[in-house]
Amino acid sequence: MKKIYLFLVMALALVLAACGDKAEETPKEQATEQTDTVTIENNKLTFEYDKAPTRAISLNQHVTEIMLALGLEDSMVGTAYLDDEIYPPLKEAYDKVPVLAAEYPSKEQVIDAEADFLYGGWPSALAEKSIGTAAEWQEMGVNSYLQTSSVMNEPKLEDIFTDIRNIAKIFRIEERGENLIEEMQTNVDAIQAQLPEQDDPVRVFVYDSGDKELLTAAQNIMNNFVTQAGGDNIFKSIEKGWTSVSKEDVVTHDPEVIVVMDYGGTPLEDKMTFIKNDPALKNTTAVKNEHFVIMPLSAASEGVRAAEAIETLAKGFYPDNF
């Protein structure tokens, strides 16, 4: 009996020891997983993340919508600078996040919010004239990310996907990022499957603003959207993002479709009245046929609305195919 008792005691001791070893290993393994450092090169700076940010501020609408589409509203302490209404599918999540300012917040507001991450969509977001530069905030221990696809020349849909992957990596939600990218690409593929086969895509002029010199899209994301929607941007050869052209240049290229950007202080109705009645522009094929496509600026940015923007353009260019 003593031998059996001794055996049971020894066995129990071994089991407890084994459990103790596992208990010691589990926290160690979890800590290793949580403290893996993510390194991101962005905006000419190197940022290191020992953990996912928990107090992020988004500074432009299209990057706000990326964060919300990734389900990061609980990791945000503020948003700013809407161009127009927030994307309807994201409205509920958006309403959970404080709006810090109609445009860019002040440095004091960012400090008061105890932000640990700043996400800018345009260069003006992380500039001395707005909240301060990325380098200044990095010195104060606050990392940032400037949307690369929004500041590069000739951005493509794949460049938006790269930005989404980087944000997902920073917040340790890579799978969510890949799911969002897959959904966007699937939607674009479905749209393109309905486009007509053609040798000569419709000639497209993107009108942003202006009544003497006209602001238009050259090699920015709208150029890519127009191309993916089966159109040909008449000013695609100009090596700039947004650029000004003369009315004579527009008339010479004779667009078949005019895409009108809807945003800002000039009402859409005023823009349409100008285009239809201008002595030069009214002679273009697009105006004669009243072939216009209306595009909100928020959809024409490097964000999650890319597929919707391409769909809007495709349906406008080739209504008989949709």
UniProtKB/TrEMBL annotation:
It comes from the Bacteria. InterPro entries: ABC_Transporter_SBP, ABC_transptr_periplasmic_BD. Gene3D superfamilies: Nitrogenase molybdenum iron protein domain (3.40.50.1980). PROSITE patterns: FE_B12_PBP, PROKAR_LIPOPROTEIN. Residues 55-321 form the Fe/B12 periplasmic-binding domain. Keywords: Signal. Pfam families: Peripla_BP_2. The keyword Signal applies. Residues 1-23 form the signal peptide. This is Vitamin B12-binding protein. It comes from Metalysinibacillus saudimassiliensis. The lineage of its organism: Bacteria, Bacillati, Bacillota, Bacilli, Bacillales.
